[in-house]
Design goal:
By secondary structure, the chain is an alpha/beta fold. It has helices spanning about 1-10, 50-60, 60-80, 95, 100-110, 130-145, 160-165, 185-200, 215-220, 240-250, and strands at about 15-25, 30-40, 45-50, 85-90, 120-125, 150-155, 170-175, 205-210, 225-230. The chain has an 8-stranded mixed β-barrel, surrounded by 5 helices. Helix 7 links the parallel strand 6 (about 150-155) and strand 7. The structure holds guanosine-5'-monophosphate (G) (3 copies), manganese (II) ion and sodium ion. This is Signaling protein.
Length: about 250
């Protein structure tokens, strides 16, 4: 496929870059982490969003090379931040199933000189539809090093309470469909509240995603979420702006 070759070349040509969106402590307002979000600045097509090329990368296997590169870049950026600020990287299912998957993560951490406890890996519910055993091994091995796992897009897939019970997640990211849109109301609020209660009992962080207004921030804080992410705080920004956001609050 043409886009596959283009994607491989794009990595070489430096057309990809990682942007960083802050994840904020809802009590203190301080940045606790940044989520790494990849962007492709195509010479002819302009800015391509991950939805437009991550699926191709997954189908063609390019995601392994691409994913290792992203983790590596994210770890290097994080190594420049204050020690209490982490970085979160999205993992595709294929990256976890690949032989030597954990090794790619180890290498990225070692190259960057980053403490594993500062890396968070985000996996979505759909990942767990197959391959339980590999997934468990991968997560246990990295958890033993101190890497933390977040269950992403919570509430969008098949119910994930079984995953929370079975796998060592430290964080739940409540999908933005619970924060804004047609399905937000008394029910969604009760669900967030229940998830947050469970999270605090299990000593997990609960992140509300897609926060765009102060009313939404207040609502999810009242419902018990301890972290928030969304345009209300900041969009994903280039690494030099991430550093400036951190400098401004310290
Ligand atoms: O960046 P955006 O804002 O458009 O992200 C869209 C989707 O692409 C999200 O679901 C996000 O998880 C995914 N995504 C963004 N960056 C990466 C990445 O580095 N790796 C993988 N596997 N998915 C990513
Ligand atoms: O699926 P995942 O959560 O990994 O990806 C995050 C996606 O959500 C990215 O596409 C990012 O740009 C987008 N996003 C981040 N904050 C907001 C927000 O406040 N509102 C909306 N609509 N999208 C957001
Ligand atoms: O660049 P970013 O990943 O933040 O954008 C995610 C998607 O949301 C894109 O499709 C973008 O056009 C759109 N978007 C960008 N800024 C905003 C915003 O402030 N509010 C909403 N609802 N959508 C936005
Ligand atoms: Mn994510
Ligand atoms: Na998400």
């Amino acid at each position: 496929r043409e886009i596959e070759a283009e994607l491989r070349a794009a990595i070489q040509r430096d057309e990809l870059s990682i942007f960083f969106q802050p994840i904020v402590d809802l009590e203190t307002g301080r940045i606790r982490a940044f989520e790494a979000l990849v962007r492709w600045f195509h010479p002819e097509k302009g800015e391509l969003r991950p939805d437009e090329f991550i699926p191709v990368a997954e189908e063609t296997g390019v995601i392994i090379t691409l994913g290792n590169w992203i983790t590596s870049q994210a770890a290097k950026a994080c190594a420049q931040w204050p020690e209490d600020v982490s970085v979160a990287v999205n993992l595709s299912p294929a990256q976890i199933r690949a032989p030597g998957a954990a090794l790619g993560i180890h290498n990225a951490l070692r190259e960057a000189g980053l403490d594993p406890s500062r890396l968070e890996l985000e996996v979505t519910e759909s990942l767990f539809l197959d391959d339980d055993e590999n997934t468990g091994r991968f997560m246990d091995e990295l958890s033993a090093l101190g890497v933390r796992f977040a269950l992403d897009d919570f509430g969008t897939g098949f119910s994930s309470l079984g995953y929370i019970n079975k796998f060592p997640f430290k964080k739940i990211k409540v999908d933005r469909s619970f924060v804004s849109g047609p399905n937000v109301g008394r029910k969604s609020e009760a669900i967030i509240r229940a998830v947050a209660k469970m999270g605090s009992t299990l000593e997990m962080d609960i992140v509300a995603e897609g926060l765009e207004t102060v009313e939404q921030v207040n609502a999810v804080r009242d419902a018990g979420c301890n972290l928030g992410q969304g345009y209300y705080f900041s969009r994903a920004v280039p690494d030099y702006l991430a550093v400036m956001l951190l400098a401004r609050e310290r």
